[in-house]
Design a protein that fits this description.
Helix content: 40-55%
Bound molecules: adenosine-5'-diphosphate, guanosine-5'-monophosphate
Number of domains: 2
Radius of gyration: 18 Å
CATH superfamily of the largest domain: P-loop containing nucleotide triphosphate hydrolases
CATH architecture of the largest domain: 3-Layer(aba) Sandwich
Largest sheet: 5 strands, parallel
Oligomer: single chain
Length: 205
């Protein structure tokens, strides 16, 4: 059997720059896939169905929950978000690395099923900068913005459930730090058992 792909789970407060950093990483790593989530929130300006999200309505989302179609799903800021199950398992089995950009509730559920995943938490350098970034993105109403900003103070309490904390001060540098994490994770002994079993088997008298 071939080596399984690496499951990279990225969370962090809204506006920390997760989407931007993932795009930068994917630009340098076209072999890595991004799991496209399904959501009931409306598309933002420029967002495309099937690229940023699969946009759907509440009844269709709930039908898919009943069918067991999600690896995990959660209600985040009053909308449903979920990770389609089959895409993840099929691609990991085929040896492809996969990024899930999901909230903390979702990440904890994924961790129960894929403890071997790499869980990365992205933070902005300061909370003032976080507010500036959400405001600068200009995609939320003032009310939505405040809801997202207030949630981030609770979210920080979950950092200890993650393996890595990466501060997004600069997009290129942050993408490089993620690259460093991925390279190191792939060298972990427990991820290379097949290799050393083969070598020790061959040379054992
Ligand atoms: P998230 O996906 O975490 O909600 P986004 O990727 O949408 O965040 O980024 C929020 C805003 O912050 C965007 O306008 C983006 O261009 C900007 N941004 C992201 N990373 C940085 C950075 N390192 N420095 C300055 N602005 C950034
Ligand atoms: P946004 O509306 O800004 O695109 O995303 C809002 C939040 O939902 C972010 O924290 C994002 O990581 C999270 N999210 C996006 N897709 C999923 C998903 O499939 N599952 C879960 N649990 N959270 C998701």
């Amino acid at each position: 059997m071939g080596k399984r792909g690496l499951l990279i789970v990225i969370s962090g407060p809204s506006g920390a720059g997760k989407g931007t950093v993932c795009q930068e990483y994917l630009k340098n790593h076209p072999e890595t896939l991004l799991s496209v989530s399904m959501t009931t929130r409306s598309p933002r300006r420029g967002e495309k169905d099937g690229v940023n999200y699969f946009f759907t309505d509440v009844p269709a989302f709930e039908r898919l929950i009943k069918k067991g179609g999600f690896l995990e799903y959660a209600k985040v800021y009053d909308n449903y978000y979920g990770t389609p199950k089959s895409f993840v398992e099929e691609n990991l089995m085929a040896g492809r690395d996969l990024i899930l950009e999901i909230d903390i509730q979702g990440a904890l559920k994924v961790k129960e099923q894929y403890a071997e995943g790499v869980f990365i938490f992205i933070m902005p350098p300061t909370m003032e900068e976080l507010k500036r970034r959400i405001q600068g993105r200009g995609t939320e109403t003032q009310e939505e913005l405040l809801k997202r900003f207030e949630s981030s103070f609770q979210e920080v309490n979950y950092i200890s459930h993650y393996n890595y904390l990466v501060i997004n001060d600069n997009v290129e540098e942050t993408a490089k730090r993620i690259e460093a994490i991925v390279i190191a994770e792939k060298c972990r002994v427990e991820r290379n058992k097949d290799f050393y079993n083969q070598v020790t088997g061959r040379y054992r008298k």
